[in-house]
Amino acid sequence: MLKVINVTKEFHGNVVISNINLEVRDNDKVAIIGLHNSGKTVLMEILSGEIKPTQGKVLLDGKKVNNRKIAYAPQIPKFVPTMKVKEIMKYVTDNYDPFLDELGLDKEKRIRDLSLDEKKRLSIALSLPFSPKYLLFDDLSSISNITKDFIRKFNGAIILAHHNLKEVWDLIDKVVIISRGRITFNENKEELLYKIVKYVDEKGEHEIWEKTKEDYAEKILKERGVKFDVLGVTPDEVFLYFYARA
Ligand SMILES: Nc1ncnc2c1ncn2[C@@H]1O[C@H](COP(=O)(O)OP(=O)(O)OP(=O)(O)O)[C@@H](O)[C@H]1O
């Protein structure tokens, strides 16, 4: 289990993530969802052991994070542009072919000729010789089907940081929403599948959105004679409206 305990990160006195507590079990499939600048990357860097929190700690099976058990694709992986894929893989193993095949990478290609998606796959390939139990992926914008298939088949926990819940919905079971560096939602994804009832308040001044799993809100509004609409809201709009507002 990956356990995040009271984690806060500051840069030059600026708190960018605050008092985060989170548990990810060995087979959890989790999306960390948030708007631009909400703290997703900082949290992923802390989870992967790339950077240290200012306060709090992260434990993997009760011990300090061991990078080799975590496969981490950063938002923008950095490699020397003139090097070949195989030269980079040689830093971790001479027997790199099966790992490159698994991730659909060409060993002869130079870094400068790789797409961002391929560079992310190379980041992952570097940890495969160590049989990682956790796969962390920061930002799934324009990822290929090869990468998606790899994530689907990965035998372990996955944590995907992304800004658009709809785009990762099929890959995950749990959703953690982060807003201004704080967790505002942490549940199974089904908990985001409710109806939204929209109506205008009695004074006619404010539009109100209410979430409802049963027909309770609708029943009350009907009894009060208030006109309302039931909106078919997608998970992503739900996240924006209820959990990720500034
Ligand atoms: N090394 C750093 N030094 C100073 N501030 C930083 C540093 N890294 C991140 N921040 C700040 O922390 C906040 C959260 O940034 P982060 O990159 O985690 O957001 P994000 O949710 O990943 O955003 P995006 O969706 O744009 O990738 C931002 O205000 C950012 O400017």
Automatic annotation (TrEMBL):
Transmembrane segments: none annotated. Residues 2-205 form the ABC transporter domain. Keywords: ATP-binding, Nucleotide-binding, Transport. Pfam families: ABC_tran. GO terms for molecular function: ATP binding; ATP hydrolysis activity. PROSITE patterns: ABC_TRANSPORTER_2. InterPro entries: AAA+_ATPase (IPR003593), ABC_transporter-like_ATP-bd (IPR003439), ABC_transporter_ATP-binding (IPR050763), P-loop_NTPase (IPR027417). Belongs to the ABC transporter superfamily. This is ABC transporter. It comes from Saccharolobus caldissimus.
